[in-house]
Amino acid sequence: MTFLPESRYVETSHAAFAEGLEPRHARPLTAQRSTRRLQLTPKYGSGPREVEVRYLWCGAPDAPTLIVQGGISASRDVTALDGDSAPGWWQALVGTGAAIDLERWRVLAIDWLTPAELGVDSVSSEDQADALAALLQALAIPQAHAFVGSSYGAMVALAFAARHPRCVDRLLLLAGAHRPHPLATAQRSVQRGIVRLGQSTGRVDEALALARQLAITTYRGSGEFGRRFAGGPEWRDERFHFPVEDYLEHQGRRFVERFDADRFLALSESIDLHDVAPEQIPTPATLIGFPSDRLVPLADLCELQRRLHGPATLEVVESPYGHDAFLKEPEQLAPLLREALA
Q1: Confidence class of residue 21 from pLDDT cuts 50, 70 and 90?
Q2: pTM (2 decimals)?
Q3: Most buried residue among 140, 176, 236, 330 by CB atoms closer than 10 A?
């Protein structure tokens, strides 16, 4: 793995405090939101390729680096330092004074690579891990203090630790395991079938929205749906509409506005191609799971904890939000993150 000269570079500085919060060290926070051209050898390719990797590297400039990666719909924009910008996907947990405190840490994240960018038919969690390892080298970071991964990001973190164990000191894994559960694979395969049918019939947006609606039913817990959508149907537009339908349709429309079908197909498939041997991972790990998570059952995390070569602890967080609890429970997660990173 080598890196080539970067194609674009942008760095900005920001005040190291939020409104009403006194800075501890009065150090300016910096952010690189840029692109590097790296050389990778994809798992399902036939040789090395040059790949543009989009990344964000932000926080105190002299602080240890944390890699932070989310699910397949998450971007490099984990947090936004500028109050005028849209919040990052983990804004509640990453920022000045937050659990991942940007005055103490420098956060590195990438946009997930796709087969089109790699010049292959399928992308693997190992490809994403190799891109992050190459990016560390390009940025002259000898070792990340931790890899904090949620959902697909946790899978990539495990692949990273298996392939580049000297590049990370510890793992913090939320709602992700060493392999996908077969029932979750079945659910995602139906979603991909819906999108492919839409592509073949010229109704891509409708199909992608419908696939997202189906996905939402697997992300959230039964308790939440029971509490929010227990009402009766309403007669509207020549048929009965059930309370949950408006919510699902809204989620589908929002997803189509920011995601494309090919990217969804590739990253959904990448989850199901993921398979890492825990015995090959010596890195100390903290696992966080949710009993209401139907995509990553606690039993899978118990197996992962048992089989990891390095020391591992499992924290269980009660939440009605299922797989999405890593996004919806910042108050419960904050102390666990702080302790794991200390």
Answers
A1: very low
A2: 0.91
A3: 176
